[in-house]
């Protein structure tokens, strides 16, 4: 059991019916997550990230497919799954009138913790998530970043081995985002919690996640470490500058002999992307020099995950998100009601 993946999804698919039209939000989602991992689900608006999370957390049933989460089947044993996971959705605790610490104690009671256990856990989380200065303040008075930290504390009151976070840092300023991430990393180091989160912030997925699953139009289109994704799918952008277009045209032929990537000229510059840019850049400069072509400038820019997304889909993440329709209405009323109830109680 200990070596069993903490998440095993097998062909999860979710379709919604909106105004008699079918929207396939998630198609054939199949993956596993090992215990202790930090996985980011990255994709533009409408890619299907939240829907995937909502299925894995038993908030909505899949149209087809299956999944085991913390050893339990999401359809057959939803209560067992819920008892062992923390879920922090996109809604924040912002409107609660209770004080921060009392909010945590209520959550403890909701999970069936004894008063003593609740107090101990609440104080522990207040400490780890840096909430002590606001513990007796009403939740409404907290800043966006403080509320988000409280949300995470609420999701961790019952010490779940697995925490799902849906866009934890959206809407926060860069400093609060960095601070929140530090807390997520610290929690993981302290409690060994497996963290599975969604984000559309490329830099966050790149910097903090050990594994990045890229989602687009309901499908996972890449799944690896950020470094591997960038090396395999994008590559460094190399640019060489010359005195004039004639030199640049001659340089294209020289550089092309060093790589099987496409080398192209733009004005007096030569441009290419290559996975081994660090080695290719000086080698190309030496070869060009030996060929009597004087290089005026040479730059290498490492790729971003946006370059990966572009290489995979032909669109940048920003463009992909902009194409999304506005809010759709769900016609699956039962699923909708179920989610509201659970999220309301679970916060
Ligand atoms: N309850 C629903 N009823 C109808 N359609 C829905 C519902 N929830 C999601 N969808 C549709 O399913 C698709 C995937 O949505 P989802 O919210 O999972 O994407 P996302 O990647 O989480 O986006 P975001 O980053 O904006 O949260 C979208 O086309 C969305 O409009």
TrEMBL record:
Protein name: ABC-2 type transport system ATP-binding protein
UniProt cross-references to InterPro entries, sorted A to Z: AAA+_ATPase (IPR003593), ABC_transporter-like_ATP-bd (IPR003439), ABC_transporter-like_CS (IPR017871), ABC_transporter_ATP-binding (IPR050763), P-loop_NTPase (IPR027417)
GO molecular function annotation: ATP binding; ATP hydrolysis activity
Stretches the record annotates as Disordered: 318-347
Keywords, sorted A to Z: Antibiotic resistance, ATP-binding, Nucleotide-binding, Transport
Feature: compositional bias, Acidic residues: 322-332
Family: Belongs to the ABC transporter superfamily.
Residue stretches making up the ABC transporter domain: 7-242
PROSITE patterns the record matches: ABC_TRANSPORTER_1, ABC_TRANSPORTER_2
GO process annotations (BP): response to antibiotic
Membrane topology: Peripheral membrane protein
First and last residue of the signal peptide: none
Subcellular localization(s) per the UniProt record: Cell membrane
The keyword ATP-binding appears for this protein: yes
Keyword Protein transport: no
Organism superkingdom: Bacteria
A Pfam family reported for this protein in Swiss-Prot or TrEMBL: ABC_tran
């Amino acid at each position: 059991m200990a070596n069993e993946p903490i998440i095993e999804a097998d062909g999860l698919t979710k379709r919604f019916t909106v105004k008699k039209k079918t929207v396939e939000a998630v198609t054939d989602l199949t993956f596993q997550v090992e215990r202790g991992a930090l996985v980011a689900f990255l994709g533009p608006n409408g890619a299907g990230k939240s829907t995937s999370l909502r299925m894995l957390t038993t908030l909505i049933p899949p149209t087809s497919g299956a999944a085991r989460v913390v050893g339990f089947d999401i359809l057959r044993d939803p209560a067992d799954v819920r008892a062992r996971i923390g879920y922090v959705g996109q809604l924040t605790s912002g409107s609660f009138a209770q004080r921060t610490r009392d909010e945590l104690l209520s959550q403890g009671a909701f999970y069936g913790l004894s008063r003593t256990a609740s107090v101990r856990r609440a104080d522990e989380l207040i400490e780890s998530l840096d909430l002590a200065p606001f513990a007796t303040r009403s939740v409404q008075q907290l800043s966006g970043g403080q509320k988000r930290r409280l949300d995470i504390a609420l999701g961790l009151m019952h010490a779940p081995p697995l925490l799902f976070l849906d866009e934890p840092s959206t809407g926060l300023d860069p400093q609060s985002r960095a601070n929140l991430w530090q807390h997520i990393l610290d929690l993981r180091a302290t409690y060994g919690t497996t963290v599975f989160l969604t984000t559309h912030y490329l830099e966050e997925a790149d910097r903090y996640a050990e594994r990045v699953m890229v989602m687009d139009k309901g499908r996972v289109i890449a799944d690896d470490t950020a470094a591997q994704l960038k090396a395999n799918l994008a590559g460094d952008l190399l640019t060489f500058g010359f005195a004039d277009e004639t030199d640049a045209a001659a340089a294209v032929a020289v550089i092309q002999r060093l790589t099987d990537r496409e080398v192209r000229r733009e004005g007096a510059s030569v441009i290419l992307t290559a996975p081994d840019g660090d080695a290719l850049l000086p080698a190309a400069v030496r070869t060009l020099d030996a060929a009597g072509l004087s290089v005026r400038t040479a730059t290498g820019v490492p790729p971003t995950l946006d370059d990966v997304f572009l290489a995979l889909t032909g669109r940048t993440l920003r463009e992909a998100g902009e194409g999304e329709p506005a809010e759709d209405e769900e016609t699956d009323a039962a699923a909708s009601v179920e989610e509201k109830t659970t999220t309301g109680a679970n916060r």
